[in-house]
Design goal:
heterodimer; A: alpha/beta; Alkaline Phosphatase, subunit A; 8-stranded mixed β-sheet; two-stranded antiparallel ribbon; 15 helices; about 30% helix; B: mainly alpha; 4 helices; about 5% strand
Chain lengths: ~400, ~110
């Protein structure tokens, strides 16, 4: 076994909200052409048929307001540009036209093509260029948050393509770990932000949960569980510590606050030398939030479920056989080669998370979902023979 | 901010830095403007869904007399939504409440 895998005792996943790969990391192609970001010539037609090119003009806030639509019918339009034929090819040409529907304002609709220059995101780009960045990590479903996050927790959404409450017919990764005598925790930011896993887990198994403050304390004391899943702050609100700015980066929340949150998670692990040597941190986004990405989502192993027109909002049944839009994903560990780019030949999605955690801490698991069984796992990226001595630290 | 204030702030940060072993690159992370905060922002579809899930859990867990009593339509802003989500989470996850109290007592 590679020494990095041998040393690995903790996996931490931080799942942010609603930003596409190109929007956040697309500018890195200029740093390293192997990163499948933006050349600067990618475009979408606007409602007048004029091409709208990508531009490095993304702002931290107030630009993607109203929130771009990212529910199933809109994502279908973004990917297929209204093509309803069968079979059809994903063109990624419908983002501007879809965003136009929000305000009927041609100029405003063009902002969906804006991306961040690397200098504006020192945390995300620092991590991406110093550790491993995935060229092909996709949302599990071409739809919104809840069904996509379900794949990270269960390896499936049990047939859901939307935001409805769902009732699991299988065990979450946290329950599996508990059953196997291992430890797991979902850390939410605070009580006013809470979790997106309310009905299924918080209601029935509160022992699985902790808060962000507890995560920081657990890092300091070296008592992190085998597996940790972290949720950012989903709202601007007050708590006992004062005003709390949303850190999830969901439009129209401030992107800089999300950078600070990512940095604080990384720093908490980095500050404890033993933890740093024995932890892999994955920073990933749940879905693209309706924002442009140039890579067509590939087909995938069917999930065993189907969602009919009443659920998809379209005139066809979805067989869970295509992934959602590509999202940023970065794996951080001192055992990962510096500047590693995980190539286009390896396709990851959120089912890769329970698949990887199960493989590491449980081993064979017969009840894994079809998507999970076929998902790529990522711990082989901890491939160095000796631990790196270089690292980053963020002054926040 | 004046140059002197900036220098003081940088000095405080450097003093607060943990002593890390190895070749460490320190990266400055800018903070958002105070105007970024907006508790009156209308709730997104994500928060609307979270409110529905919380409401569902509240009804499943609490007798009618102990429920919040407000209608979901009452929560139009993030600040309003957060106050309800906080109240329900306190019931669903009392362990976190105990931690909050012990933190406040310190």
């Amino acid at each position: 076994m590679p020494p990095g895998l041998d040393a690995l005792k903790h996996i931490v996943v931080l799942m942010m909200e609603n930003r596409s790969f190109d929007h956040m990391l697309g500018s890195l192609k200029a740093v390293n052409p192997q990163i499948d970001g933006l050349a600067g010539t990618e475009s979408n037609p606007d409602t007048n048929g004029n091409p709208v090119q990508v531009q490095p003009l993304a702002e931290f806030q107030s630009q993607l307001d109203p929130d771009p639509d990212h529910h199933f019918p809109s994502v279908d339009q973004q990917i297929f540009n209204g093509d309803q034929s069968n079979p059809r090819v994903p063109s990624m040409q419908g983002f501007v036209r879809n965003y136009y529907q929000q305000q009927q304002d041609v100029a405003h609709s063009q902002k969906i093509m804006y991306y961040f220059p690397q200098a504006k995101l020192p945390v995300l780009t620092g991590l991406a260029t110093n550790f491993a960045v995935f060229n092909r990590w996709f949302a599990s479903i071409p739809g919104p948050t809840i069904c996509n996050r379900a794949f990270a927790h269960y390896g499936t959404s049990f047939g859901q393509v939307g935001m409805d409450i769902f009732y699991p017919k299988g065990k979450s990764i946290y329950e599996r770990l508990e059953d196997a005598g291992r430890t797991a925790k979902l850390y939410y930011f605070d009580q006013a932000s809470s979790t997106m896993e309310v009905v299924n887990l918080l209601q029935h198994q509160p022992q699985l949960f902790g808060t962000y403050d507890q995560f920081l304390a657990d890092c300091q004391s070296g008592t992190l569980p085998d597996y940790s899943f972290i949720e950012p702050n989903y709202t601007d609100h007050d708590n006992d510590d004062g005003a709390q700015l949303a850190s999830d980066q969901h439009p129209d929340h401030n992107v800089q606050q999300g950078e600070i949150f990512i940095a604080s998670i990384y720093n908490a692990i980095r500050e404890n030398a033993n933890l740093w040597a024995s932890t892999a941190l994955l920073v990933v986004y749940d879905e693209h939030g309706g924002i442009f990405d140039h890579v067509p989502p590939p087909s995938c192993t069917p999930d065993g479920y189907s969602a009919g027109p009443a659920d998809t909002g379209l005139n066809y049944t979805f067989a869970f056989d295509r992934l959602g839009v590509r999202v940023p994903a970065i794996l951080i560990s001192p055992w990962v080669p510096k500047g590693l780019i995980v190539g286009t030949d390896r396709v990851f999605e959120h089912a890769s998370i329970p698949a990887t955690v199960t493989k590491k801490f449980i081993g064979d698991y017969a009840a894994a979902t079809p998507r999970e069984k076929n998902a790529q796992t990522f711990l082989d990226l901890l491939s160095l023979d000796t631990m790196r001595t270089d690292s980053l630290y963020f002054n926040v | 901010m004046t140059t002197r204030k900036q220098a003081k702030k940088t000095e405080r940060r450097v003093k607060a830095r943990p002593q890390l072993v190895g070749d460490v690159t320190y990266i400055e992370v800018p903070h958002p403007a105070t105007s970024a905060m907006n508790k009156n922002r209308p709730v997104s579809t994500l928060i609307q869904a979270q409110l529905k899930h919380m409401h569902h859990a509240e009804r499943a867990r609490l007798p009618k007399a102990k429920r919040d009593g407000r209608d979901l339509g009452d929560f139009r802003t993030e600040g309003e939504a957060a106050s309800y989500i906080s109240a329900v989470t306190k019931v669903l996850h009392p362990h976190a409440q105990k931690r909050a109290k012990s933190k406040a007592a310190r």
